[in-house]
Amino acid sequence: MTAQGEVTLVEPPPVVNREHTGRRAETEADLAALAPEAQAALRQFSLDRTTGYGVDHADAVELRARVLGGQDWQSAAVELAEATARRADGDGVTPTTRIALLRRSSALLRMGQMMILTDTDDRRALFAEAAQRYARAAELAGDRERVVLDTEGGPVVGWLVPATGVAVASVVVIGGVEGWAMDFDSLGDAFSARGIDALLLDGPGQGETRLSHHHYLTADWRAAYSRAVDFLDARAPGRPLGIVGNSMGGSFAMAFAAADQRIRACVDNGGIPAPWAVPPSGTFFTKMLTFCGTGEAERGLAAWRTVTPLARGVNTDYRLLVVHGGADPLVTDDWARELLRDAPAGGREMVVFSDGDHCVYNHRNDRDALITDWTRQRLTAR
């Protein structure tokens, strides 16, 4: 009220509501009422696995809630990705926030294409946009760079995460049949923080290498991995080299380590002794064939039979760490112990997370610390 007795109206402070679906119950009855693809997506991509691939926890909760509410997996993930991208380009957003939002948006787009079993135009477009947003974030942050390496089989794409401070070693990090280079950037960050250059690689059959350049798994896949090691070796001649493989990538990492004497340390996080022995039916087998650019079982299996993690090669001195989840629904305890027992390596160790799921996504920070600390110690030991 003014001195003259007049009433002054004060505008209330603005209130902005950010609407979220919120966590939903996931009872058996709720799941049974959903479409088969939605059930499969929620079963295959648990909250831990989804966040393990770089999806923000809140985004993963929202994604599951929307699918439980009846929305299909792909459209739910893409809608969330677009909303996050709009926030990244909003007024008043600092560069630090924009970087984080672009990476969140990229991870959601990558998650959106997970349930597409073959390489459709829609899938290629989704993944290309995910890579573009990841690249925007990388340019803003200045903490990694996209690398394209020419090989006889076609280009291979990776993301180089340079060491923070003085680099003491270099590593190649690879994913598996479903999770690829960008999905494992938490390992890249962990290696960087420990003074190790990390090349997050999409090998033949993976990620941008496959979806943008049509470079699939063939019997000559080792040449592409060798080219990646050449790249790291040329950047820092004489610096010790290692390789880390996640999921089926663990089988590739071991098979390559035995064939290349430059590799001094190898980590298998979720591989199996005989990838070609996966039952020849179901969606995972279809994804394995797509990895090879074919729908023909025998042609695909011929390529997978060359991934031989237990075969002896010229390199018998490398050190091996097997990381295993005791609750892994895909890799049995017996398979993990077979890799440990029969690997043609100079030194072998295994760490088991008793309640760990596949690739130990549910202990991601501890897993990454274990892998990166172990690798640094083995590569720098005199």
Automatic annotation (TrEMBL):
PANTHER family, from UniProt? Answer: DIENELACTONE HYDROLASE DOMAIN-CONTAINING PROTEIN-RELATED, POLYKETIDE TRANSFERASE AF380
* Signal peptide per UniProt: none
The cross-references to Gene3D superfamilies, in alphabetical order and at most eight, read: alpha/beta hydrolase
Q: Report keywords, A-Z.
A: Hydrolase
- A single GO molecular function term of this UniProt record: carboxylic ester hydrolase activity
**Protein family membership:** Belongs to the AB hydrolase superfamily.
Cross-referenced InterPro entries, in alphabetical order?
AB_hydrolase_fold, FrsA_esterase, Hydrolase_4
What sequence ranges are listed for the domain Serine aminopeptidase S33? 169-265
Name under which the protein is recorded: Alpha/beta hydrolase
Matching Pfam families, A to Z?
A: Hydrolase_4
